[in-house]
Write a structure and sequence with these properties.
By secondary structure, the chain is α/β, with parallel strands linked by helices. Helix content is 35%, strand content 17%. The protein has 11 helices and 9 strands. The mean pLDDT is 93.
């Protein structure tokens, strides 16, 4: 019997990376892309419309495109209905949440929502469809499934041999706990996939390392492709684009703003700490998105997020966030202020003076994108992208 694929659905990945250069640009782009192993994206892909609908003053379009490797990307655009003029664009980045059976579906009310999406939205977003809320503020919003999530997920049936035993045990435990007709809002199919995907992430990270990239580097590649798609959408002003995300999406927003100098604003929510306090008790709370070998001991999250000092940056953290050490969060916000003001690694060391702005706050609450924080992000984007 043939050994199952360890990268189901991505068997073209090795050939795709062979000879492909890494993303190149100015010094910051090249250094960070080199550390993450970000493959250079090609030209903006052709985008196919799947379906469209209008609800509560927002026009939503489901679209898809190919990044050139693995399955097609599914995404959703949301814009104010009936508005013809050019609008600023926001790339809205979904969180990790240990839920890979869906991706950006948690940010928009799709035509046929899944139980998993509704549950994640209630647990982490106060039940709000953030993409649609931002569209009502006057933005064209693009929310896409990134590498390893939703439409871009790996095929794990059958699972790779190295995780087959643990996956079988975990799925049996889930089935025993829920039963075939569970009435507690459990999606047995989706949840079973998420159990397998959580065990599979380290397999993906291994494969990425073998191919000269990283888990975070492949996610950044997908996000850069989506940013190019956003800027090419009809009705989007390509010179007024922003990135925003919560948790893992917040880390992706900070990375994108460092990789792409055209990003005008970045909102990083619930993804900020200094590196040292993550050990010994907090590193296990995070995925391979936060653990690219050799990165954070050289360039920590505050340094990456504020590195350009040429775009507007909003960083929101929470004082009861169970995934981050409180002393690390406080130290990171102090470092953000220092670096932006040029007191550490900034203008005082020869870098140009900051031309962007910094807003940062530690709000009450745990690891969830509260309605208060969502409103603050919306107001920040309005200020930054106006005019």
């Amino acid at each position: 019997m043939a050994r199952p694929s360890a990268i189901g659905g991505y068997e073209d990945w090795p050939g795709w990376t062979a000879g492909r250069p890494l993303l190149d640009g100015d010094d910051l782009t090249s250094r960070l892309a080199g550390a993450l192993g970000v493959p250079a994206p090609g030209a903006a892909p052709a985008v196919r419309t799947v379906q469209e609908w209008e609800r509560d003053g927002v026009s939503v379009t489901e679209v898809e495109w190919s990044t050139g490797v693995g399955p097609a990307t599914r995404a959703w655009t949301a814009r104010p209905a009936g508005v013809e003029r050019q609008l600023p664009g926001v790339l809205l980045l979904h969180c990790h949440a240990g839920v890979k059976s869906i991706g950006a579906e948690r940010l928009v009310r799709v035509a046929e929502p899944t139980v998993v999406a509704e549950r994640v939205r209630r647990r982490l977003y106060e039940g709000r469809a953030l993409a649609e809320d931002l569209a009502r503020r006057g933005f064209v919003v693009l929310a896409h499934d990134t590498f390893a999530w939703g439409s871009r997920r790996f095929v794990l049936d059958p699972p790779p041999a190295s995780i087959a035993g643990p996956v079988a045990l975990a799925r049996a435990a889930l089935a025993a706990e829920t039963g075939p007709d569970d009435d507690r809002g459990v999606d047995v199919v989706g949840d079973a996939y998420d159990v397998a995907a959580s065990l599979h992430e380290h397999v993906v990270a291994k494969a990425a390392g073998l191919l000269g990239t990283s888990f975070a580097g492949m996610v950044a590649h997908d996000d850069l492709v989506a940013l190019a798609v956003l800027r090419a959408l009809p009705g989007v002003d390509p010179d007024r684009t922003a990135v925003a995300g919560f948790s893992g999406g917040g880390g992706r927003a900070g990375t994108l703003a460092a990789l792409d100098p055209r990003v005008r604003a970045s909102a990083v929510v619930a993804m900020m700490t200094t590196t040292e306090p993550l050990l010994p008790a907090y590193a296990d709370a995070h995925s391979w998105l936060l653990a690219t070998p050799g990165l954070l001991h050289r360039s920590g999250l505050p340094e990456i997020a504020v590195a350009r000092r040429a775009h507007d940056l909003l960083v929101l953290s929470f004082d009861g966030d169970e995934l981050f050490p409180p002393d690390g969060v406080r130290a990171a916000h102090a470092e953000l202020r220092d670096r932006f003001a040029g007191r550490r690694g900034g203008a005082s060391t020869g870098s140009p003076a900051a031309t962007g702005s910094l807003e940062e706050a530690i709000l009450p609450g745990g690891h969830a994108f509260s309605a208060v924080a969502q409103e603050r992000v919306g107001a920040f984007l309005e200020r930054s992208l106006a005019g």
